Automatic annotation (TrEMBL):
The lineage of its organism: Bacteria, Bacillati, Actinomycetota, Actinomycetes, Micrococcales. GO terms for molecular function: ATP binding; hydrolase activity; nucleic acid binding; RNA helicase activity. Belongs to the DEAD box helicase family. This is DEAD/DEAH box helicase. Residues 1-10, 17-249, 679-698 have a biased composition (Basic and acidic residues). Residues 474-652 form the Helicase C-terminal domain. One of its GO terms (cellular component) is cytosol. SUPFAM superfamilies: P-loop containing nucleoside triphosphate hydrolases. Pfam families: DEAD (PF00270), Helicase_C (PF00271). CDD domains: DEADc (cd00268), SF2_C_DEAD (cd18787). Residues 1-253, 618-704 are annotated as: Disordered.
DNA sequence: AAAAAAG
């Protein structure tokens, strides 16, 4: 790590940075032993990387040079945020307000222009010029970014990963008490893969596809398989006026008075939206679309359900359609989202628009087969909608090269800026050309989001369509103080209501447990959490969207972005961790102008935390005592459940109807099918039993 | 402290 001083400048570090440098050195030595002479290569690469960053962030002022040096170790260290934090914490910089910094950044970018201008005479220094993607600029990027850099990354990471892997296995070998669910997950995953591939189901799908879809996109779809289901359901629930196909082509669509047309979006897009009954843009769309169309970096805040997907989707597609063609392995835009469900939703929402404007998109996320994603990339894809893990994976495989990304979008950015995610996001965004457009959307604009904003956004326009607190006018908030012994009963009463209910719990185990308890009391409920394999997740979510399962018991996987209409009540069985989480969870109801109720349960020992949380969230309510049967609960529409216990098998039968039944049936005709479990009953039962095992385990705990 | 994201 002392190699860092290689550029000849004297380096001043804070203590923390020295420490980190020391650690890195130790790591490097260890790597040395492992890898022999590769080290040199790696060192050279590091310099390279730094060089590039300097170009982006560089500014001639002494202060800024200091800052750069100050930050340098970050690039090599594990924690890339560390340098910046230190910097922010330094006494002598306390007066250096955020605004100042921002204007500095703008300045530095101007300088960036000048540098390029020096190299190339024909470029103006103003933003539009900088934003253009010209062929002759590219080679320089490629030089910087490719070849020698990537291997270095790969080595680093692989090393880390390998060691952690080793530990894992080691643990397993000597430890019989290994966490149950880890094992479960691995099993499930494996079996799901096998299922995916083995596939006697495939023929049925293919028929299905041939029926109602145009052949030109068949390629793109060939991987759908399991993911097919929720997609359709999305489409069915998403625009409430879900038009039937024939209706669409029937009458010409008038763009008269169409709010989207007024935003100067291409007619094809406006028309396509109108066909789904989307003619009036939401406030956040009105606010952000013009700026995004103009190519500016946008920082958008809006409650989930406020239409953020279109806010970035429309301008993104419009700008992409204006020119250029995706080259193999080089997407022109990336949309990063924190969860797979969200990725699928975004992909679905954009799909008709992407296609109608003549572009190609691809969903790239974990838990899905690689091959379709690889081949789509190879063919060339304009928009990549991705979760960070798989995208990085593909980058490392050399399948995705981000050096020609013109537009980068971060959805639910506050979540992405959290510990553990941030690093991945940085790794990805570091690969994206610095002069591209960046759009950042989130329900809240803090939680360390500024790190990302400062690092990657240039002179962003900020649009917020609400004040960031809970909206009291469309949402009723109840906070109930209950005794522990009533918790189960109150939960069931609130959940036992007509319409959809989302129940939030803190842990995965808790989700399984509560869902089980609800079913025991005769309330049809299913758990959704990250411990389920992808196909289970899809099935559960699909069944919930279908209305087959009215109660979804979820961890915070579902807190953000999951878009289901008509969720009347959000019930928080476990209080959220902080007021942001409260708002995110609450955002699952009262979507798109509808009414909704948020009920939060708190136990006596949680009373004070809970009240503080309510205040912070800006919900104007306070805790009230409640027991089963109280009026408060009646007021939410809940009632004491009377039904007979629902078994695990009943649930499974409901959420994963026999596969064979799907072949040849049309869109609208997808109720539960009579006639038993069919040929694949066995498969279902096998899935179910592994799930049930965990469930019982969880319930056992709850008896305590 | 938990959850999410790569197998």
């Amino acid at each position: 790590m002392p190699k860092k001083a290689m550029d000849g400048k004297k380096v001043r570090w804070t203590r923390a940075q020295k420490l980190e440098a020391k650690r890195s050195e130790v790591r490097a030595q260890r790597d040395d032993r492992d890898r022999g002479q590769r080290r040199d290569q790696g060192a050279a690469t590091r310099t390279d990387r730094r060089d590039r960053t300097d170009r982006r962030e560089g500014a001639p002022s002494g202060r800024d040079r200091y800052e750069r040096r100050d930050r340098a170790p970050r690039r090599d260290g594990e924690d890339r945020g560390a340098g910046r934090r230190d910097y922010a914490a330094r006494d002598d910089r306390r007066d250096y307000s955020r605004d100042d910094r921002r204007s500095d950044r703008r300045w530095s970018n101007d300088r960036d222009d000048r540098r390029s201008t020096d190299r190339r005479d024909d470029r103006g220094g103003d933003r539009p010029a900088r934003r253009s993607y010209r062929d002759d600029r590219r080679p320089s990027y490629r030089d910087d970014r490719r070849d020698d850099r990537r291997p270095a990354y790969r080595d680093d990471r692989r090393d880390d990963r390998r060691s952690s892997f080793r530990d894992d296995r080691w643990d397993e070998r000597r430890d019989d008490r290994r966490p149950a669910y880890r094992d479960d997950r691995r099993d499930e995953r494996r079996s799901s893969f096998r299922d995916d591939r083995r596939d006697d189901r495939r023929p049925a799908y293919r028929n299905d596809r041939r029926d109602d879809r145009r052949p030109s996109f068949r390629d793109d779809r060939s991987e759908r398989r399991d993911y097919d289901r929720p997609r359709r359901e999305d489409r069915a629930t998403e625009p409430r006026t879900a038009p039937v196909r024939e209706q669409r082509s029937a009458e010409p669509i008038s763009l008269e008075g169409n709010g989207f047309a007024a935003l100067e979006l291409p007619e094809v897009l406006v028309e396509r939206l109108a066909r789904d009954g989307i003619t009036a843009p939401f406030p956040i769309q009105v606010a952000t679309i013009p700026d995004a169309l103009a190519g500016r970096d946008v920082l958008g805040r809006g409650r989930t359900g406020s239409g953020k997907t279109l806010s970035f989707g429309l301008p993104m597609l419009t700008r992409l359609a204006k020119g250029g063609k995706a080259r193999p392995g080089q997407p022109r835009a990336i949309v990063l989202v924190p969860t797979r469900e969200l990725a699928m939703q975004v992909s679905d929402a954009l799909q008709p628009l992407v296609h109608i404007i003549g572009l190609r998109h691809k969903l790239v996320a974990g838990g899905m087969p690689y091959e379709p994603q690889l081949s789509a990339l190879e063919r060339g894809v304009d928009v990549l909608i991705a979760t960070p893990g798989r995208l990085i994976d593909l980058m490392e495989r050399g399948a995705a090269d981000l050096s020609r990304v013109e537009i980068a979008v971060l959805d639910e950015a506050d979540h992405m800026a959290e510990m553990g995610f941030l690093e991945a996001i940085q790794q990805i965004l570091d690969q994206v050309p610095t002069d591209g457009q960046r759009l950042l959307f989130s329900a809240t604009l803090d939680r360390g989001i500024d790190t990302v904003v400062e690092q990657y956004l240039t002179d962003p326009v900020e649009h917020a369509t609400d004040d960031g607190t809970a909206s009291v006018d469309t949402m009723d908030h109840h906070a109930l103080l209950i005794e522990p012994r009533y918790k189960k009963a109150v939960t069931a009463e609130v959940a036992n209501r007509p319409g959809r209910t989302v129940v939030f719990v803190r842990t995965k185990l808790g989700a399984d447990r509560v869902a089980g308890e609800l079913r025991d009391q005769g309330v049809m409920a299913a758990a959704l959490h990250g411990g389920l394999n992808q196909s289970q997740r899809n099935k559960v979510l699909g069944a919930f969207k279908d209305g087959k399962v009215p109660v979804l018991v979820a961890t915070d996987v579902a807190a953000r972005g999951i878009h289901v209409d008509d969720v009347g009540v959000v019930l928080q069985v476990d209080p959220p961790a902080d007021h942001k989480d409260y708002l995110h969870r609450a955002g699952r109801t009262a979507r798109a102008g509808e009414k909704g109720t948020v009920v939060t349960l708190a136990l006596p020992h949680q009373r004070r935390t809970m009240q503080r949380l309510l205040d912070e969230a800006g919900v104007g309510t306070s805790l009230q005592n409640a027991r089963p049967g109280d009026d408060v609960i009646r007021a939410t529409g809940g009632s004491t459940p009377q039904g007979a216990p629902i078994s695990e098998q009943d649930l499974q039968r409901l959420i994963s109807p026999p596969r064979a039944s799907r072949g040849g049936r049309s869109y609208g005709d997808r109720g539960p099918r009579q006639g038993g479990r069919g040929r694949y009953g066995d498969r279902n039962r096998r899935d179910g039993s592994s799930y049930g095992g965990r469930d019982r385990f969880g319930r056992g705990h709850s008896a305590r």
